[in-house]
Amino acid sequence: MNVDNRTIFCHDNLEVLRGINSACIDLIYLDPPFNKKKTFTAPIGSSAEGASFSDIFREEDVKEDWLETIKEDEDDVYSFLMGIRGIEGRASYNFCYLAYMAIRLIECRRILNNKGSLYLHCDPTMSHYLKILLDCIFGEKNFRNEVIWCYRGAGYPKNDFGKRHDIILRYTSTNKYIFNLDEIREEYAEATKKRFKHYIGNIREGKDFGQQSLNSKGKHPDDWLQIQPIAPSAKERTGYPTQKPIALLERIIKASSNEGDMVLDPFCGCATTCVASEKLNRKWIGIDVSVKAYELVKIRVEKEIKSLFAQDIGFYTRPPDRTDQGTDYLPQKYVYIISHPKHKGYYKVGIASNIKSRLGSYQTGDPERKYKLEYAHFTPHFREIEAYIHQKYDNNFEWVKGKVEDIKKDIEHHSSKPTALP
């Protein structure tokens, strides 16, 4: 692990996530912007005064290198994003938001260990889009729950049902994940207790299935949590515009981590995840673009955790440096050549991290599956080589005109360390 416990980063979370070593985080909880298309600001006079964040996503916020990386590494994610853009247009708020989230969630998957879990907090504004995006990144088989956080509140719309819930999408890295059932059991309803108190046996269809009893530790929790939002007069309220109750975070942390595990919140805001983790003897890392997160976590830990002091918390304004790659590490990807009979004399030259996946994505769109991998070259100079080939040869979008042997020679000539296809 290359980041110390009790650390707050004040920086773009994408760069911080990219600087964290792979497979070293046990639990990620993120409460990102919801794509509400407005700006949130803490009230004057509150502890969080000065905290503000924009929940508006525009075309200029999407960086081309994000899309290039996703295209090279994540076929399903790229296809999903291009589908949204094709329907709604490049300037679509939904496309811009999902591109912003996708590149960060890909890094979240990388830094989670094999027993790790991710909880993404959202609401119906984008939950249906985010579910598909997470399926693409983590795999449908690693989706565990759609947890509903429901609550009471004042004020109801005249012509709609009252909107009284958020959604938390729970995914795991693998099927060997942490889930501490006994830590989050709930008290049985009084009616259930009364019924079982006088219950003799379980008899169905004339058969006695033996004595039935309630679990002494409580009932198995359902996929909905009824936890009230923070009251205006509550001591834990900081004034941060999207603050979540610490009881909610404690349930999540207890369920999917053990004491001593590392918990990460990439959008830590007023640091509720950090405070809850500290209370439950977990290690923690928080990231936020505002220095206010650091100021609030200092205030809250000194107020709510008597054994921890502000000087115990690390504060950094630059991303960490990965220590799991070596000092001379350069990322490497394949530059590939793919052919198809209908493009005679032309070859698709592109970049991919996974050749089989890329070829498969082409074959999916071809009923006759006639795409053929002609060549692939693993190199750290993938971007420069691809650009050179597309500049040298006549091309039709990503298909270049030429002889495959000539293209192969040019690819190898412009790579300092030629390697064979494994």
If you compute it from the alpha carbons, what radius of gyration comes out, rounded to the nearest whole angstrom?
A: 26 Å
Instruction: Describe the largest sheet.
Output: 9 strands, mixed
Shape: elongated
Question: Could you tell me the mean pLDDT?
Answer: 88
Assign a percent range to the helix content.
25-40%
**Helical/strand content category:** alpha/beta
Count of helical stretches: 12
Task: Please write the string of helix (H) and strand (E) elements.
Answer: EHEEEHHHEHEEHEEEHEHEHEEEHEHEEH
Catalogue the unreliable spans. Answer: 203-207, 418-422
Number of strands: 18
Q: How much of the residues is beta strand, in percent? A: 15-25%
Main β-sheet, spatial strand arrangement? 10-6-7-5-2-11-12-1-13
Query: Termini distance?
Result: 31 Å
Could you characterize the architecture of this molecule?
- This protein is of the alpha/beta class and 422 residues long.
- Helix content is 31%, strand content 21%.
- The chain is built from 12 helices and 18 strands.
- It has helices at 13-18, 64-73, 75-88, 93-111, 127-138, 190-197, 246-256, 272-279, 292-304, 355-364, 382-392, 404-413; strands spanning 7-10, 25-30, 39-41, 52-54, 112-122, 143-150, 165-172, 203-204, 207-208, 224-226, 262-265, 283-288, 314-316, 333-339, 346-352, 372-379, 395-396, 399-401.
- A hairpin with a 2-residue loop joins strand 8 (203-204) and strand 9.
- Helix 2 packs across helix 4, helix 3 runs antiparallel to helix 4 (93-111) and helix 8 runs parallel beside helix 9.
- The longest helix has 19 residues, at 93-111.
- The protein is elongated, with a radius of gyration of 26 Å.
- Mean pLDDT is 88; it is low at 203-207 and 418-422.
